[in-house]
Q: What sequence folds into this?
């Protein structure tokens, strides 16, 4: 009686704003005593107070038992408070839940409708799998209650129970069907909602209800229920296309007549999702013309996204994106309107507009659209120059860097200049709201949209590839979010696929790599490391397209090389070797004493860099450690072991090659030593082209390829002393072994333990080649040996570059076309396994990322 | 239509009501409440009433100093949710006669009861204002009757005695000071 009431508590809280926590602590102590009291009124008031504190974020699980006590109170007011507290605070693991079973059962069977209602509400919320199983039948019994109010609640409650107790669905579905005929509209509404929810996950089970629902759709006038039924048909129509024809009439009628935007929205949505717009029946538009339903939907959508109401604009754009999937030509006409939405200050609307815009781009509009999006990125970057501006992935300072970096790319080509020119008008207009364009999520979406619309359908819409590459390079500076992987993949993809752009792309790569600030930022863990590696690959692979430059090799061996990942380092080193040998070949053509001097100095400088990379601790003095003979070999191995294998093997390979050059050019001569001219041909024997990801699997196994047989005599397992080593030729040829499936293996096992163990040996033993290891001495486990690096392994049919894991590439001659990569023609009569491949009809719709993504 | 949650948050970021229709841990709930509140409170008046938050579409509407916020599925009807929110506010307004934030603070249980009548387990179940108000009125009447019946019959004497004792002690303490 004299305890603090709920009102007192709340007033007290408001009065004690300064030391709220302390006040709550004291109140909780009081409440702890109060819930223990035998007086139910006091207990229920305490539970109410707890409930309030719970809402403020304080735990009340300790009082769960007391809550159950209050739920069991005979007085409705207290029961109601108890149930409320239970629904708010109980969770699936609350242990007292099992105490509630009988309590709820009693309430469900109560003669007092209010108690039944409270129990149904509560049960729907707190049901666990056990409670649902125990009480399902009790709730089912309530479904026939005389009051529609209770029937309605029972329907929804049973739905929740069925979610926890799926076995109940069998009993529920026929009942639901009956409730669809209920005389009371609110019960019908509840039944429709429940069927709608159930049909979302499993539409097939509810197809039989379609006629009844169709009847409701054509007879009811209540918009709330209509929306639900229309929504329900959106789940059913995709699995039963005949429904679309049936729905055409009622839906188009609703679309034409309704004034409720929410119903109109739902109808248009269902018409699109259920492909009702695909039904070839005419409808009459507002002025009586006969038009396609799809056109009608497009007309109605204009009402939405041209509205001044932001909400309607938003849902209009959402639906437009859906319509675009089915009928892109109907959306294309609204290009300007949608583009204008890109400058909306509201992030939600911008994101949706971006969706539509990226699907809209055509050959004609692509460049303008991309420039518009780029300008948003650049402008907000300018805003980021102010110190207080929020940074994206890069800190504010780094963003400022990126801006300063921009002019460097400015000189890259005409296309870039024009991209810069496009900034001016929108800058004046101040259209891009800085806050929306600064949002990292939005920036990411913008970059993805730009790249997506440029490369869609194998560059279907692209007319100017140099501009595209310049745009990608610009994005490196302006993105402001982490799009490293995306940019690196796209850069490689376009360069490898489009022969005409390679030269420009190589220039651009050189420019990116020359930006020491960009490189050092990437090395310091910042963005763009992958993009730089891609640029390194491009520069190395296509350096012969540009005038040879002796500095490229050094550019590709930056001082902070070790800060990149293993694969990236390997790419850099390999590319450096390519550019160096390319330059050597070039100068070999006009050899002179000056050139000789230059070769000497460049070679020795690279030699120093390499040995520093190989022996970071010993400094430049150990430059000739490689030449020091067998004594130093141990040191070399030890030192290099600290480097990752793929990096150290490439470094040493390069060092070996350069040593050859160094020896050959030790004396000035009248003409270049032949090695200078020839070294680069190691990398140019075959051209690398994109290959469909599925192509590798289609390469037929060559006749007589035997991978199961032993190469050497296996060492018998002496501990077992059973198996004599089998003669190497005994095994079946692989092709037949592969054709017979596992049962053959089983029978082979059963021949005897000896063979079984032998096989096990083969699988686990270090002396056996595994099936997937394609030849080459490196396949053997064992420490790397300098001699193993196949610098001149041409006769094996595998060029040195093939060391780089580059799964998507293969050697094949192939004409590149701008728009559609053709199916690769068989390789010329080269000495390669790939030349024998019989792969007609390989789908060359190369997926994104089919470039040398292994970088 | 399946609503994941509904909550009310004041302009100062205080939660005034929170109802969850999906099973979620307390920590997750608080995280969502915090993140979504921040998103909603940062919105400007002339922006649309929908925000995308993870796999949920947040539909909100501001009434005076309170934001009514609901989370729905991505392919649910946002406009319908706005109408439901509006309907809820209309019922609250009728019930409290010009509802204000204080009403909802001091009688938060009533707000929950009304919400329960309109939305059950994430499904909008009653859209008629009259029907909702009738049910709530009936329930309140029953409760009032019960309190009246209590009379003085079962006064908590123990409680009275304890309170008196405490008061005396406090009085003494303050006197000694």
A:
């Amino acid at each position: 009686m004299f305890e603090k009431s709920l009102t007192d508590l709340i007033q007290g809280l408001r009065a004690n704003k300064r030391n709220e926590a302390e006040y709550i602590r004291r109140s909780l102590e009081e409440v702890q005593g109060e819930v223990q009291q035998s007086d139910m009124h006091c207990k229920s008031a305490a539970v109410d107070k707890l409930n309030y504190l719970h809402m403020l974020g304080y735990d009340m699980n300790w009082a769960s038992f007391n809550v159950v006590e209050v739920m069991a109170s005979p007085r409705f007011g207290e029961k109601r408070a108890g149930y409320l507290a239970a629904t708010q605070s109980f969770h699936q693991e609350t242990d007292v839940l099992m105490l509630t079973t009988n309590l709820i059962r009693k309430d469900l069977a109560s003669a007092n409708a209010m108690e039944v209602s409270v129990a149904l509400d509560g049960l729907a919320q707190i049901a666990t799998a056990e409670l649902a199983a125990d009480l399902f039948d009790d709730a089912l019994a309530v479904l026939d209650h005389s009051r529609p109010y209770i029937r309605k609640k029972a329907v929804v409650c049973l739905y929740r129970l069925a979610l926890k107790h799926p076995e109940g669905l069998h009993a529920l579905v026929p009942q639901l069907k009956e409730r669809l005929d209920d005389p009371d509209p609110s019960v019908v509404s509840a039944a429709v909602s429940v069927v709608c929810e159930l049909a979302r996950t499993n539409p097939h089970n509810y197809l039989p209800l379609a006629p009844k629902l169709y009847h409701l759709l054509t007879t009811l006038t209540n918009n709330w229920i209509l929306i639900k039924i229309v929504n329900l048909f959106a789940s059913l129509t995709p699995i039963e296309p005949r429904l679309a024809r049936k729905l055409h009439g009622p839906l188009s009628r609703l679309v034409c007549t309704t004034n409720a935007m929410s119903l109109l929205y739902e109808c248009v949505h269902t018409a699109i999702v259920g492909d009702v717009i695909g039904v070839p029946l005419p409808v009459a538009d507002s002025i009586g013309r006969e038009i396609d339903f799809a056109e009608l939907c497009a007309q109605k959508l204009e009402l939405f996204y041209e509205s001044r109401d932001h909400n309607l604009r938003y849902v209009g754009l959402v639906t437009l994106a859906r319509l675009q999937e089915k009928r892109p030509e109907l959306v294309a006409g609204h290009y300007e309107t949608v583009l204008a939405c890109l400058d909306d200050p509201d992030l939600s609307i911008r994101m949706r507009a971006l969706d539509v815009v990226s699907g809209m781009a055509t050959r004609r509009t692509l460049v303008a659209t991309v420039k518009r999006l780029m300008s948003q990125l650049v402008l907000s970057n300018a805003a980021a120059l102010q110190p207080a501006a929020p940074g994206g992935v890069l800190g504010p300072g780094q963003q400022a860097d990126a801006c300063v970096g921009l002019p460097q790319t400015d000189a890259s080509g005409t296309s870039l200049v024009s991209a810069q020119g496009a900034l001016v008008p929108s800058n004046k207009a101040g259209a891009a709201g800085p806050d929306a364009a600064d949002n990292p999520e939005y920036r990411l979406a913008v970059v993805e949209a730009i790249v997506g619309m440029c490369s869609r359908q194998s560059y279907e819409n692209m007319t100017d590839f140099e501009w595209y590459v310049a745009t990608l390079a610009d994005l490196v500076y302006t993105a402001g979010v982490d799009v490293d992987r995306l940019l690196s993949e796209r850069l490689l993809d376009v360069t490898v696929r489009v022969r005409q752009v390679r030269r420009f792309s190589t220039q651009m790569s050189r420019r990116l790599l020359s930006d020491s600030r960009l490189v050092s930022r990437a090395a310091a863990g910042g963005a763009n490391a992958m993009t730089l590696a891609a640029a390194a690959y491009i520069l190395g692979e296509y350096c012969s397209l540009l005038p040879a430059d002796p500095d490229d090799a050094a550019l590709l061996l930056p001082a902070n090389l070790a800060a990149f990942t293993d694969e990236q380092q390997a790419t850099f080193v390999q590319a450096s070797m390519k550019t160096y040998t390319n330059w050597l070949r070039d100068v070999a053509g006009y050899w002179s004493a000056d050139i000789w001097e230059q070769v000497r100095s460049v070679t020795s400088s690279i030699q120093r860099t390499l040995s520093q990379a190989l022996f970071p601790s010993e400094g430049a003095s150990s430059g000739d450690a490689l030449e020091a003979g067998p004594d130093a070999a141990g040191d070399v191995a030890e030192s290099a072991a600290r480097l990752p294998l793929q990096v150290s093997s490439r470094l040493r390979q390069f060092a070996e090659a350069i040593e050859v050059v160094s020896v050959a050019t030790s004396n000035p001569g009248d003409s270049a030593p032949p090695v200078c001219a020839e070294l680069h041909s190691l990398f140019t024997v075959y051209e690398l082209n994109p290959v469909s990801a599925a192509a590798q699997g289609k390469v037929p196994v060559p006749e007589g390829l035997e991978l199961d047989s032993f190469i050497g005599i296996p060492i018998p397992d002496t501990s077992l002393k059973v198996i004599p080593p089998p003669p190497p030729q005994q095994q079946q040829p692989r092709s037949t072994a592969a054709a017979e499936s596992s049962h053959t293996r089983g029978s082979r096992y059963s021949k005897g333990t000896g063979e079984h163990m032998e096989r096990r040996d083969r699988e686990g033993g270090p002396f056996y080649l595994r099936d997937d290891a394609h030849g080459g001495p490196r396949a053997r486990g064992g420490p790397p040996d300098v001699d193993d690096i196949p610098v001149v392994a041409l006769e094996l049919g595998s060029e040195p570059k093939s060391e780089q894991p580059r799964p998507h590439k293969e050697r094949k001659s192939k004409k590149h076309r701008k728009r559609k990569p053709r199916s690769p023609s068989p390789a010329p009569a080269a000495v390669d396994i790939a030349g024998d491949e019989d792969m007609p009809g390989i789908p060359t719709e190369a997926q994104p990322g089919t470039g040398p993504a292994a970088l | 239509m399946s609503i994941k949650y509904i909550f009310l948050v004041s302009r100062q970021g205080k939660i005034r009501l929170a109802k969850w229709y999906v099973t979620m841990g307390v920590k997750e709930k608080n995280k969502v409440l915090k993140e979504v509140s921040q998103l909603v409170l940062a919105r400007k008046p002339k922006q649309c009433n929908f925000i995308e938050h993870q796999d949920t579409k947040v539909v909100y509407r501001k009434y005076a100093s309170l934001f009514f916020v609901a989370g729905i599925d991505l392919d649910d009807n946002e406009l319908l949710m706005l109408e439901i929110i509006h309907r809820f506010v209309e019922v609250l307004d009728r019930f409290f006669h010009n509802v204000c934030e204080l009403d909802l603070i001091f009688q938060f249980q009533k707000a929950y009861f009304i919400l329960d009548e309109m939305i059950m387990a994430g499904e909008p179940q009653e859209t008629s204002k009259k029907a909702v108000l009738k049910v709530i009125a009936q329930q309140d009447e029953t409760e009032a009757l019960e309190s009246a019946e209590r009379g003085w019959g079962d006064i908590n004497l123990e409680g009275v005695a304890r309170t008196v004792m405490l008061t005396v002690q406090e009085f003494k303490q303050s006197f000694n000071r």
Q: What stands out?
A: The first helix of chain B runs from residue 26 to 41. Chain B touches chain A through 57 residues (CB under 8 Å). The helical segments of chain B are 26-41, 78-96, 101-106, 108-118, 129-150, 157-176.
